[in-house]
Design brief:
Elements (H helix, E strand, L loop, with lengths): L2 E5 L2 E3 L5 E8 L8 E6 L6 E6 L5 E3 L7 E6 L4 E6 L8 E7 L10 E5 L2
Parallel strand pairs: 2-10
Antiparallel strand pairs: 1-3, 3-8, 4-5, 4-9, 5-6, 7-8, 9-10
């Protein structure tokens, strides 16, 4: 059964940083594009970044230059380094396969507030 476990969220002041982690239990991890998604209050879930098997990273405009996605194929892990956080980054963050999503994990809450 495919499972994603996200961690690393918390409360941070504007301008602060957080590093999110995602542990993925699926045996094809090394051969798929992985993504980080988020769902803000009253909003639909949206993609923020994805990383290909080649380690090429692609970002949505809203986070470009502030977030960095990475992966460790030896550990089936995906990371999201978030810098210069803004209140509008407040959301529950999830990882999943890009496009062809599996069941969603619990996510990790990120709150940016002073």
């Amino acid at each position: 059964q495919v499972q994603f476990v996200e961690s690393g969220g918390g409360l941070v002041q504007p301008g602060g940083s957080l590093r999110l982690s995602c542990a993925a239990s699926l045996n094809i991890f090394n051969s798929i594009t992985m993504g980080w998604y988020r769902q803000g209050p009253g909003k639909t879930r949206e993609l923020v970044a994805r990383i290909l098997t080649s380690d090429l990273a692609i970002y949505e405009d809203s986070v470009k230059g502030r977030f960095t996605i990475s992966r460790d194929n030896t550990k089936n892990m995906v990371y999201l380094q978030m810098n210069s956080l803004k209140p509008e980054d407040t959301a529950v963050y999830y990882c999943n396969r890009y496009l062809f999503n599996y069941n969603w994990g619990q996510g990790t809450q990120v709150t940016v507030s002073s």
